[in-house]
Automatic annotation (TrEMBL):
Similarity comment: family membership: Belongs to the eukaryotic initiation factor 4E family.
Source superkingdom: Eukaryota
One GO CC term, this protein: eukaryotic translation initiation factor 4F complex
Record-given protein name: Eukaryotic translation initiation factor 4E type 2 isoform X1
Keywords in alphabetical order: Initiation factor, Protein biosynthesis, RNA-binding
Any one Gene Ontology molecular-function term assigned to this protein's record: RNA 7-methylguanosine cap binding
InterPro entries, alphabetized: TIF_eIF4e-like, TIF_eIF_4E
Amino acid sequence: MSMEKVASKQYESKIWPDLVDSDDSDVENEIDVDKLPPLEVGPGENRLQHTYCLWFSRKGTQRAASDYSKSLHVVGRCASVQQWWSLYSHLIRPTALKPYRELSLFKQGIKPMWEDPANSKGGQWVIRLRKNKIERAWENVCMAMLGEQFLVGDEICGIVLQTKYPVSPKIIQYAFNGETMPGYL
């Protein structure tokens, strides 16, 4: 067996095959992200300004908010640049995601849904891209968010990569109204 296959098997998540390939009913996410202990950042690691959660969801065409909430699954968290790259290097690439799948990178404590108080009175920016441009764009937007490179970085809640073929994939950036979450400004 090649080293690549061994490495991919070693880090293969039990949750990914079901979430990516299955269209069975959703299983509610059992992890309460808000109750998880803070992530440790080791010596020599570069701490991020915020801790981030990476989410996965399978979004159908006709979903109510409660159904969407049940489809959200935390894939991982990161509080340092090194933790991010460790997580990112084992993700399925955007072009390999099936239709109606989403990857979301949000500040910890904010869920990637409009019903979250941080998002409810905010807005969004949407970028539609050709499929052959989505991988580089997703990586660049993730890096810009993690590195606080947006001019209004404190107002950005998170970003979402959404696949809805045959429609072009899109990247959505969520921003919140400072009156709803003054602690974040």
